[in-house]
């Protein structure tokens, strides 16, 4: 998350070493979260109460809005793990997504820098695995509990509205989607 140093003047974008692409500063982050998960919605609310150094937009994962904004990403996995998309097109998933969320917060940026180290990354991974285990325990077991049910292939069941299809998880090309 550190800033890239370059020799160019103000406004010049330095090149990232070995990648051949211009460095893109992060000015806004969009967090894709599971709106049906109590832990995820608690974290969403917590993030919104924090003082932010970088604006955060929180969008339900797999929603029409998420698909409209980010047609180039696979939306199936966004329901399983937090995904953060930066305004420069960078995509962060899992532990890296949690670290970038902390980096956006004024009081937690120092923690994000520590978690970006090799030993901190192990801690971040352990925290994400603990959250995943908690989420798994919150999901209905063999019996459906009557809430909204989402599948990774784009189908959603809502008890009041029935089944709906949001489209394939992968983006279609500009010529449209082939019929299936």
Characteristic terms for this protein:
disordered C terminus, 180 residues, 31% helix, 5 helices, 15% strand, single chain
The largest sheet, given as strand count, sense and whether it forms a barrel, is:
4 strands, mixed
Strand percentage lies at 15-25%
Strand line-up across the major sheet: 2-1-3-4
Total beta-strand segments: 7
Q: Helix share of residues?
A: 25-40%
Count of helix runs: 5
Envelope shape: globular
Q: pLDDT under 50 segments (min length 5)?
A: 1-21, 171-180
Average residue-wise pLDDT: 73
Quaternary assembly: single chain
The SSE order reads EHEHEEHHHEEE
Radius of gyration: 18 Å
Distance separating the two termini: 42 Å
Class inferred from helices and paired strands: alpha+beta
Question: Could you walk me through the main structural features you see in this protein, from its secondary elements to its overall organization?
Answer:
- The chain is an alpha+beta fold and 180 residues long.
- The chain has helices at residues 38-49, 64-69, 95-103, 109-115, 118-138, and strands spanning 29-33, 56-60, 83-86, 91-93, 149-150, 155-158, 162-165.
- Strand 1 (29-33), helix 1 and strand 2 form a beta-alpha-beta unit.
- The radius of gyration is 18 Å and the shape is globular.
- The chain has 5 helices and 7 strands, in the order E-H-E-H-E-E-H-H-H-E-E-E.
- Helix content is 31%, strand content 15%.
- Helix 3 packs antiparallel against helix 4 (109-115) and helix 3 packs across helix 5.
- Strands 2-1-3-4 form a 4-stranded mixed beta sheet. The chain has a 3-stranded antiparallel beta sheet with strand order 5-6-7, with no helix packed on it.
